[in-house]
Amino acid sequence: MEDLKWYVMYTTSRSEKKVANRLLERGWEVYLPIVEELRQWSDRKKKVQKALFNGYVFVKTRRDQLWECLQVPGAVKFVHFSGEHATIDERVIDVIKRVVETGVDIETDGSEIAPGEQVKVIAGPLQHMTGECIEKGNKDYFVIRVPGIDQNMLINVPRKFLEVVKSKSRV
After folding, report:
1. CA distances (Å), 65 to each of 7, 29, 109, 121, in order?
2. Count of CB atoms within 10 A of residue 140's CB?
3. CB–CB of 58/9 below 8 Å?
4. What is the pTM of this model?
5. C-beta separation of 60 from 5 below 8 A
6. Residues 20-75: tens digit of each pLDDT
7. Model confidence over 82-119: pLDDT tens digits?
8. What's 12's DSSP letter?
């Protein structure tokens, strides 16, 4: 019997929550990272909840059950790379959950970012996490890569909370 893996489902525009709820109702294990964002209208400001990764829902299932998952209204397809279904490692899902649960401001970025300095967060809700630090728009960001969907989570962390990780010297 095949192991359960986290597959990446692409949904119709702005229907991630509906698709996730429909999958849950049918007994599938689903993860939809939700973040709160302050939106400005002409007459008011309001906090709204939105999917962290637009158009994506993570479904834990077996490869032979993917077709059943796609029968849910709003589900479009499972993401492929090089002819293979994209899967996300359980550890990456855990990291995403941990970051979302902290409530820190998160941006997502689908561009290819050149590797930067390896850093460790030394204070705050992400303490002890390691990753890389990049500069974008005069701000320092702590980057967590989500390779299965070619997305990056950019978390603005003050530089005073980052410590450079010493790389092993090569001989």
Report:
1. 11, 12, 30, 39
2. 20
3. yes
4. 0.74
5. yes
6. 999 999 999 999 999 988 888 889 999 889 999 999 999 999 999 999 999 999 99
7. 889 999 999 999 999 999 999 888 888 775 544 577 78
8. S
